[in-house]
Structures are given as C-alpha cells and as structure tokens.
C-alpha cells in the first residue's frame, strides 16, 4: 500500500495557520522567542504568491478528481487562501496583543519594585538599568503591532492583485480587507 504524500510539496510549505503555539509570559519576556513565533506566523505572508499558485493548482486537481466546488478555480483558490490568511492574522494579532499586555504588566511591577526599594543607591541603579532594558524590549513588542499592520497591507495588495473579483464575506475577517 502506497504511503500518502503531502499535496503539492513538502511539509515545509504547509500553512502557518495550522501551527499550534502556546505563548506564555516567558515567551513574551524573551524577545528572541517572541520574534521566532512571529517569524513562523509570517511565513504565509512572505510566500503569498506561491501560496496563491499552489491553491489554484490544488483546486484544479480537486476538480479533475471530480470534486466540483462553487465558482471558478480562481474564486475557490482565493476563498481558501483568504480563510487561511485571516485565521493566521487573527492568531498573530492575539499573540502580539497578549504579549503587549504581559510587557506592560511587567513594567508596572518593576516600577513598583523600584519605588519600594529603600536599599543602597547601587541597588537602585541596578533596578533602573533593568527597567531600562525592559523598556527597550517592551517597545520592541509594541512596535510589532505596527510591523504587523504593514505585513498585512502588503499581503492584501498581493492578494487583491491576483484575486480581483474576490469580495470577503461580511464577518469579523472583513476588518482586514478594509485595512488597505
């Protein structure tokens, strides 16, 4: 019996939307881990043209196999990719929002600890240095919201250029369509 092969490519080309990641406070407080998680989720955006091509090929293969969907191959491919993109964008937005909350709470805790510290000036300087380093990380996490908006807009431009007749359904994912 033949082993089933992944459709149209290797596992490395699978959608980041299928990735399940547990993001904890520790992930948010470690900027390298946080950025690695975002990098994984941005792979779909980085390869949007390839994904559109692959989605078209998959829908055509399904039609040849007798599985007829509604609309043209292009419309079906655009709908499938739209669903994938919006699920990915929602998850990424949730992760960034969660991490900004974690960073803001951590900053507040560090400020409170510095206020209650009555030790020597050396201990106070150490706390101030730690607070400054934390502020730098906090700003990086906050900046990811802006970066993500740019990534989404760029992906939307590529998507719209290939899916000119596509109109997203009126649901919460519509807000992404209205961004650009």
Structure description:
- With 180 residues, the protein is mainly alpha-helical.
- Helices cover 71% and strands 0% of the residues.
- The protein is built from six helices and no strands.
- Helix 2 packs antiparallel against helix 4 (73-116) and helix 3 (48-64) crosses helix 4 (73-116).
Low-confidence runs of at least 5 consecutive residues: 1-17
Distance between the termini: 49 Å
Instruction: Please give the largest β-sheet.
Output: none
Give the C-alpha Rg.
Answer: 22 Å
Mean pLDDT: 79
Order of helices and strands: HHHHHH
Helix count, DSSP H or I runs of 4 or more residues: 6
Strand content: under 5%
Tell how many strands the DSSP assignment holds.
0
Counting structural domains, the number is: 1
| SS content category | mainly alpha
Organism: Roridomyces roridus
GO cellular component, one term: mitochondrial intermembrane space
InterPro entries: MIX23
Family: Belongs to the MIX23 family.
């Amino acid at each position: 019996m033949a082993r089933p092969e992944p459709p149209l490519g290797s596992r490395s080309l699978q959608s980041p939307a299928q990735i399940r990641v547990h993001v904890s406070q520790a992930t948010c407080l470690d900027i390298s881990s946080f950025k690695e998680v975002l990098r994984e989720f941005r792979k779909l955006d980085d390869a949007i043209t390839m994904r559109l091509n692959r989605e078209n090929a998959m829908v055509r293969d399904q039609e040849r196999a007798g599985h007829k969907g509604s609309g043209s191959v292009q419309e079906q491919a655009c709908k499938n990719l739209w669903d994938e993109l919006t699920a990915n964008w929602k998850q990424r937005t949730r992760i960034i929002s969660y991490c900004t909350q974690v960073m803001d709470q951590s900053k507040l805790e560090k400020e409170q600890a510095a206020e209650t510290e009555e030790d020597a000036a050396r201990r106070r300087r150490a706390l101030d240095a730690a607070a400054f380093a934390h502020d730098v990380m906090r700003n990086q996490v906050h900046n990811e919201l802006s970066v993500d908006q740019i990534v989404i807009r760029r992906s939307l431009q590529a998507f719209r250029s290939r899916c000119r007749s596509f109109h997203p359904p009126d649901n919460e994912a519509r807000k992404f369509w209205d961004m650009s």
